[in-house]
Amino acid sequence: MAAAGAPPYMTEAILLMAATVVAVPLSKRLGLGSVIGYLAAGIAVGPSALGLFTSGERVLGFAEIGVVLLLFVIGLELDPKKLWRMRRDIFLLGGAQVLVTGFALYLFGLAIGIDPNVSLVGGFGLALSSTAFAVQILQERGQLTTPYGQRAFGILLFQDIAIVPLLAMVAVLAPDDGSGVSHDFLYQAGLTISAIGTVVVAGRYLASPLFSLLAVSRAREIMLAAALLVALGSAALMHLVGLSMALGAFLAGVLLAESSFRHTLEADIEPFRSLLMGLFFVAVGMTFDLGVLVSNLGVVIGGVVLVMSVKGLFLWGLARLTGSSNQDALRIAVTLPQGGEFAFVLFTAAVGNAVLPYEVSNILSSIVMLTMVMTPIACLALDWIAERLKARGVENPAIETFDEATPTVLVVGFGRFGMTVAQILTSEGLEVRALDNRPDRIAYARKLGYKVYYGDATRPDVLAAAGAGKAALIALCIENDKVMMQSIDLIREGFPGVLLFCRATDRAHALELTRKGVDYQIRETFESSLAFGRAALEQLGIPQDRISQIEEDVRRRDKERLDIQMQEGLYAGVDRLHGVTPRSNAPDNA
């Protein structure tokens, strides 16, 4: 209960933050990862332990927004072409995993005398893994973009889709009340197709123009509100027709993956996503019923061992059959053996349709939550075994391939200067990503075939989302000297290993950049001025060898003057300039 006069939920918010601030750093210090810390915090403040919260259901309902935003951000990183390339992992590997694991657990339930309907719902519910847990583990380890990480994510995607037919299965298994289902089925199918079509059309044709319009205002909070509107609106629409909210947000993210606002959207949503994901894991911990665990300890522990063993074995075998190395197959097996959040949805629906007894649902939910707790520990165990084998010389490292195999250059500022720089780099086959904060310039560059994204160079989160941490070189081609200086400081602090090349607007700016210690700088008009003067001399009939001497002399004098100005100030080194000198006074071979 909140104190008198305090805003609603103030006390609850403080308790949750205090619990996580203590538990998460401690868990990470012990090498268990942040997920275990969040779960432990939830169990501690939940009704089964300290009882500071009477129920985690209310918090869990709100915290599921974190899963929605997680899938939206992941969708932003997967354009439709990449998603199409993953179709084999999604439908073949993911489909086989759900079917084989669910059917095996169903047969086991029948073998020990459990009702067929209960076995069917329980088996296929436990076959689903946790998208939130698995993706969080992969992201913490920096392995989401590795081959095994992408295959694991493909399996999770299919499981998110599979919840729809599984919920339909529960409706079919419900006791017959005498009403027909054919009309309801057709109606639901029509709603589903309409909802997906609406998300596709809105994401493909309406979202980008909306963000372009809002970007002109330069109001960051409005862009953030629009990003949340797209993610949550797509999720809510899918939820209205009985589909997964996370799947709706993921679809919206995929449709915006090729948008020029992709990196800014990702950076804006990331803090909310991280906070709400943590709250989701806390809420899962709060719903953990220690009383059910104690009363049915043998059944729950046996169920955990069975589920993790069966899922792990089938995941490893299917991954090997579909082309994964032994090492990658093992990693997939220990990342996805847990039950998932959609199992709670399925079990709740089954209880509501009188397919699953309430007591059995509680036991199954306890099994799911305990498998979640055990998954990070299983990952740590695999790492420990791998280290021991490596120390003994028994090592079989997989050769990992990445989409970003070529050196990446991040071009910030895509005007005339930046576009010319990009032409030079792309001609050598280098991957170039570009940021700019002017929607009109982005639209023009995209019409020419360049991938340019909307972003602010003074925001480290936007630079990170655009790939500054993975870039071999960052080319700052910004016209605004003040913005460039702020960006240089951020890059040097956040991405110290990257090469930094800068466009200088004038001589004073070039001196300032040199003092900043950038790896390379050039005045934007210097080379064009030399080329202009060279062409003028050619037209005036000066011999080519003499023109080359003159150009070399001007370059040498310019460098000497810059060195003097670095020591004595902007107006020093005037004696290095050529005055209005008659041609006859020019030194021989100067």
UniProtKB/TrEMBL annotation:
<keyword id="KW-1133">Transmembrane helix</keyword>
<dbReference type="GO" id="GO:0015297">
    <property type="term" value="F:antiporter activity"/>
</dbReference>
<feature type="transmembrane region" description="Helical">
    <location>
        <begin position="90"/>
        <end position="114"/>
    </location>
</feature>
<dbReference type="Pfam" id="PF02254">
    <property type="entry name" value="TrkA_N"/>
</dbReference>
<keyword id="KW-0406">Ion transport</keyword>
<dbReference type="GO" id="GO:1902600">
    <property type="term" value="P:proton transmembrane transport"/>
</dbReference>
<keyword id="KW-0633">Potassium transport</keyword>
<feature type="transmembrane region" description="Helical">
    <location>
        <begin position="299"/>
        <end position="318"/>
    </location>
</feature>
<feature type="transmembrane region" description="Helical">
    <location>
        <begin position="330"/>
        <end position="351"/>
    </location>
</feature>
<feature type="transmembrane region" description="Helical">
    <location>
        <begin position="6"/>
        <end position="26"/>
    </location>
</feature>
<dbReference type="InterPro" id="IPR004771">
    <property type="entry name" value="K/H_exchanger"/>
</dbReference>
<dbReference type="InterPro" id="IPR038770">
    <property type="entry name" value="Na+/solute_symporter_sf"/>
</dbReference>
<dbReference type="InterPro" id="IPR003148">
    <property type="entry name" value="RCK_N"/>
</dbReference>
<feature type="transmembrane region" description="Helical">
    <location>
        <begin position="219"/>
        <end position="237"/>
    </location>
</feature>
<feature type="transmembrane region" description="Helical">
    <location>
        <begin position="185"/>
        <end position="207"/>
    </location>
</feature>
<keyword id="KW-0630">Potassium</keyword>
<keyword id="KW-0050">Antiport</keyword>
<feature type="transmembrane region" description="Helical">
    <location>
        <begin position="273"/>
        <end position="293"/>
    </location>
</feature>
<feature type="transmembrane region" description="Helical">
    <location>
        <begin position="35"/>
        <end position="53"/>
    </location>
</feature>
<dbReference type="Pfam" id="PF00999">
    <property type="entry name" value="Na_H_Exchanger"/>
</dbReference>
<dbReference type="GO" id="GO:0008324">
    <property type="term" value="F:monoatomic cation transmembrane transporter activity"/>
</dbReference>
<feature type="transmembrane region" description="Helical">
    <location>
        <begin position="151"/>
        <end position="173"/>
    </location>
</feature>
<comment type="similarity">
    <text>Belongs to the monovalent cation:proton antiporter 2 (CPA2) transporter (TC 2.A.37) family.</text>
</comment>
<dbReference type="GO" id="GO:0005886">
    <property type="term" value="C:plasma membrane"/>
</dbReference>
<protein>
    <submittedName>
        <fullName>Kef-type potassium/proton antiporter, CPA2 family</fullName>
    </submittedName>
</protein>
<feature type="transmembrane region" description="Helical">
    <location>
        <begin position="59"/>
        <end position="78"/>
    </location>
</feature>
<dbReference type="GO" id="GO:0012505">
    <property type="term" value="C:endomembrane system"/>
</dbReference>
<dbReference type="GO" id="GO:0006813">
    <property type="term" value="P:potassium ion transport"/>
</dbReference>
<feature type="domain" description="RCK N-terminal">
    <location>
        <begin position="406"/>
        <end position="522"/>
    </location>
</feature>
<keyword id="KW-0472">Membrane</keyword>
<feature type="transmembrane region" description="Helical">
    <location>
        <begin position="363"/>
        <end position="382"/>
    </location>
</feature>
<feature type="transmembrane region" description="Helical">
    <location>
        <begin position="120"/>
        <end position="139"/>
    </location>
</feature>
<dbReference type="InterPro" id="IPR036291">
    <property type="entry name" value="NAD(P)-bd_dom_sf"/>
</dbReference>
<dbReference type="InterPro" id="IPR006153">
    <property type="entry name" value="Cation/H_exchanger_TM"/>
</dbReference>
<keyword id="KW-0813">Transport</keyword>
<keyword id="KW-0812">Transmembrane</keyword>
